[in-house]
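A quick aside before the break. I want you to see a complete sequence-to-structure record at least once, exactly as it would be stored in a machine-readable document. Don't worry about memorizing anything.
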Amino acid sequence: MRIAAQLYTLREYLKTPEDIAQTLKKVREIGYRAVQVSGIGPIDNQALKDLCDREELTICATHIGYPDLKNNLDAVIEKHKTWGCQYVGLGGLPQEYRTSGEGYAAFAKEASEIGRRLKEAGLTFIYHNHSFEFANFGGKTGMDILFEESDPSAFDFELDVYWVQAGGADPAEWIRKVNGRMKVVHLKDMAVTGDRQQLFAEVGEGNMNFSRILDACNEIGVEWGAVEQDQTYGRDPFESLAISFANLQKTGKINV
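That is the input. The structure line, written in tokens, reads:
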């Protein structure tokens, strides 16, 4: 598995094309050779590709808003073709589907149709979870429903191991469950404070069993591990990405 920087981590440094150029340069200097595009400000598709090419950064995956996936799919496809990016990500379940098992099933079918259209264009739809998908609806979690009711040939997953853990599930177990349906994973760690808060942490600095997680990823053939940290609690997010990068390198279980 190769690692990438999830740019959402650096969203406050991606407001303008000039910001984006400086940020990509810093990401490359840390040692990352790939990025996931998410949380960036307005920039022309080709201009972003040119900046990434200049820094020798691969765009391995994205997060795209659901309205664009539903209503502007041709433009989404064109964007990914320009970027040379196969994996079209959705960052979370739209609010209107979250309240019932029927909502999850309806979304699974709707997103599968989008996934089939992307597949025809040579692209792959990937779904990124949070913890709310592990709510129980009549004996099945929302994640179970998404897994069972979606088209396995057109609906892939992008498990976020932190949110799987926060949802009370086993990240390594879920990684193995989606075998054949996941080529991109989100890597972030969880720290716990003395007053029982769960905090985002740099990979290797928290309590999660990353040896098992990385073994499971490699076992099922995950291609990209996108390092993400939603909050860095006063620490420079570039420093946080550098810490995660160094800790992942030490494991010997990833490729840069």
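Two observations worth writing down. The chain has a mean pLDDT of 98. The two ends are 8 Å apart (CA to CA). We'll return to this after the break.
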